[in-house]
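Figure S4 source data
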Amino acid sequence: MMQLINNKLSRYLVAVMACFSSACSPVKMLNSLVPENGYELVSAVEYGESSRQKLDIYIPKNPKTLDVQKLDALKKVIIFYYGGNWDSGERVDYKFAAEALVSKGYIVVIPDYRVYPEVLFPELMADPVSAAKWVKTNIKKYNGDANKVFLAGHSAGAHIAVMLAINAKYLAAESLQPRDFAGVIGLAGPYDFLPLKSDRLKTIFGPEAERWKSQPINFVDGKNPPLLLAVGMKDATVWPRNSINLAKKIKENNGQVEVVEFASYGHVDMVAKLAKPLRGNGELLKPLAAFIDKY
């Protein structure tokens, strides 16, 4: 019986990984295999007036009702910004990532945000900030600890999360500052990616003389909240140098940063390996949870 289950799972894994390289939707396949019995989902919560200004909240189920008036009963909160080249993405596609973090006992918030062509940089930073403000203001209603909110993201979402941690001007628009967040996690993020080659990216990030402003590495001052940069060393989409260079500069400025490298992971692995069908022994999830628990 166990052999039959293992064989079936193996076939699923092969199909999922093949799907990432084909025209089918890998996230739909992953999400179809993700457990739904470990959390309560509060969906499509509005944090603004745009159709893209909505978020989903994943709340771990607990056999006992917790008293939200007791600080030690509140849950740590992860705001997860998905990737998509700053021009695409849907919050519902990242149920698999939310479930991974919820399984460790954290509340997970996944916001949609406006992307190109509706907005360009730096305007595309506004919605992620508004979503973070909403969470800080309202998450206690959902048993979340507003003093223990983490920012996280994959790829373009990691760029957004890390930029918020390093360039204080974005959060200041909502009367927040980087140290209002307990920590920041970047998965396969682009932080030092000039010069641009794609015409689309050149449009998104504006005139060449202004593009330096899009690079988190240019704003390092060592005052960032604790950062965890996770990088796949076989990532051919976002080169590992992005994380390595950023970490080096933060350390030179006496800032807090940790780097965890995955020798055999490519770009997609750096988020797909969170999904329960691909999680294995939790090689990717474990260091993320350890970082969150540390702070």
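Figure S5 source data
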Amino acid sequence: MTTIERAEVLVAGPGRNFVTLRLTTSDGVTGLGDATLNGRELAVASYLRDHVVPLLIGKDPARIEDMWQYLYRGAYWRRGPVTMTAIAAVDTALWDVKGKVAGLPVFQLLGGRSREGVLVYCHASGTDTASLVDDVARFRDLGYQAVRAQAAVPEVGGTYGVRKGLIYEPAATSLPDEQPWSTEAYLRFAPTYLEAVRDRLGFDFHLLHDVHHRLTPIEAARFGKRVEDVQLFWMEDPTPAENQESFRLIRSHTTTPIAVGEVLNSIWDVQHLITEQLIDYVRTTVVHAGGITHLRRIFDLAALYGVRTGSHGATDLSPVTQSAAVHLDLVVPNFGIQEYMEHAPETMEVFRSGVRFENGMLHPSEEPGLGVEYDDAAAERFPYDPRYLPVARRLDGSLHDW
């Protein structure tokens, strides 16, 4: 019987920090899984090395479902981002192995294509309205059919989602950067720059906006109502999701679609949001929601209630997750959109991926498995470098949701 012979936890910082699990079978087949948890990478690396890897050696790599149940239901401590990211790494690596053994890309094992490509959205930003509109226009010229728009709030001096260079990376300092925040200034300004984008560039593309948990439910309701005329594809994370009933209040005041889920880790975290139809798009992702196996369950539940997919896909997820997401997106009937940001050139030196962008869509590799290779020699040039995500404080100094 073929078994898992080796399990390696690889930590490197090519452009940003990534944790990768590489499984090798007794037949010499390898599989890659992403285990990156932005700002808490070493917690997952330790969880894997100290608690999960010893459980994998000697196991049958073909038993993906049984392994998922073993790592989840067989443990006393369940759920949470560290545990679910570790499980996701194992699950994704096993799907990569299975595809290589079968000689098929993973999307074929999941049921085959439901569409020809995966619609993606990019991240446009600016230090003011004019520079934001120019950036949206630039992405439109590059062929993107959907664009997320964020601009710095003038009275505050900055806000979430604004790039400092060509690559957006918020985890950029050895200790958390403390950034100022004013809800009042944001609510005055953000609708105006979204309107400016539509006034100049029209309505023949999808426009998205990320609120990033910064509003109370009634503030989010007011914002959603205010921007209805710009026809947002969605407003993302309008309020923290811990109190899921709060989304019912938002729903009662606005028809602007709502997307939630990138910081949620299991089907139980989004069950109420989906079954009560409190959201329109579920943004859980392969790496933080238990891998391909569990994310498929979330998407299938969502399909029953008319909720579409919109998985998180920023550069805090490695090209392994990006590829796994595209394979799953290609298959599920209720696919909505996929977040996409180009990785730094250094990242792509370590991860050789067959995913390609064309005409506003991503296309997976047709190679067996996920179509991603890990270059150990390149990774050695990029050691781990501790980075923290920023912290938001109101103008009076009190802490605000990030």
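The longest helix spans residues 81-102. The mean pLDDT is 95.
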